[in-house]
Amino acid sequence: MCASRTQVRPNGYVQAVPRIYLSPPHLAGGELELLQDALESNWIAPLGPHVDEFERELASTAGVPHALSLSSGTAALHLALVVLGIGAEDAVACSDFTFVATANAIRYVGAEPVFIDCDETTWTLDPHLLEQALAERPEIAAVVAVDLYGQCCDYGAIARVCAARGIPVIQDAAEALGSTYDSAAAGGQGHLAAFSFNGNKIITSSGGGALVSRDCALIEHARKLSTQAREPVPHYEHVEVGFNYRLSNLLAAVGRAQLATLGDRVAARRRVQARYRELLDGVEGIAFMPEAPYGRSNMWLTCVLIDPDVFGADRERVRLALEAADIEARPLWKPMHLQQLYAKSPVFGGGVSSALFDRGLCLPSGTGLTDDQQELVVETLLASRG
Which of 128, 118, 116, 129 is nearest to 152 (CA)? Predict the structure, then answer.
């Protein structure tokens, strides 16, 4: 995965270094033992004891009673919309500043996404714009609020807006496992919440996701749908359209080993960001994503804003300088309203997310990032000014 090469650092020091990735998988150490257990027990097909345990452990981590492990976070969002009865006659309010999978799940059920800009102090869904959208668009039947780069949305404010209209909230917590809102674990703030265990997330099951909730009936309906909606009879009987969305027992074993180290991983990501702040302290034109006072972020990715007039280089020049040094960095999410796919969808606001995209950059943030690697990232970033 990491081929070494010779590199001249900005300070003139020559060394052989591997590519520095944005957020690579990081083995916890217990994966092989649990995988071996799954293999030796012959539970290699979908479902099995590790799936059951992974769901139990995940529910406990999220502070909710019910969890369903799935093939991806996108599958979790899709099923959340289905079990809430969202369909072609509906619209769904959705964070504008997010990965496309959030919006795509709305399209899967035939509904129309209505994008809501983010608040500039948290970068998450703006409750005031959400209230405006709900007042002007009575066809909105649900809200999908995205926890961004580890930071939870302001669910107290969102709940106050939605409760008066009886509108359910789906929490897209794909990036927020291990974060908190008002001292409670991320995942329990909506009617349903989706997690992702993709390879770049804070823990991974080599691909996978989960749906969690306090509502047993919603999770059990999603569980049925995730296995092709088979009816509980000896033959194959179906009255609903189902999906092939379950996580395998092998991947659940990997997920369990990773989940056991979640606390250490959150601490490591927060140390990475704290060190970036230390190394870039006093550098004009560089600002970090703010941490909201109502919660604690897992700081999945360290994100900075670059003011080109002050710093002396724009975001893209910095990114290309890092790439030339074999360091992966990535712009912030391109807002949905700027995507060709969703150019005709309604949007409330949009200026904040657009500005963040223009100036924002995600820096390497993996839990295995070394001090030397981090110093190289910062040296290269500073040298990009020429």
Answer: 118
In 3D space, the residue among 35, 76, 61, 26 whose CA is nearest the CA of residue 249 turns out to be: 35
Amino acid (one-letter) located at 14: V
Antiparallel, parallel or unpaired: β 14-17 and 5-8: antiparallel
Q: What is the pLDDT of residues 270-294, one digit of tens each?
A: 999 999 999 999 999 999 999 999 9
In the chain, where the domains are located:
5-24+262-383, 31-259
Q: Give the tokens for residue 243.
A: 């999906």
Class of the CATH-defined domain 5-24+262-383: alpha beta
Low-confidence residues in the chain, pLDDT < 70:
1-16
Q: Is the whole model's pTM more than 0.70, yes or no?
A: yes
Mean pLDDT over all residues of the chain?
95
Architecture of domain 31-259: 3-Layer(aba) Sandwich (3.40)
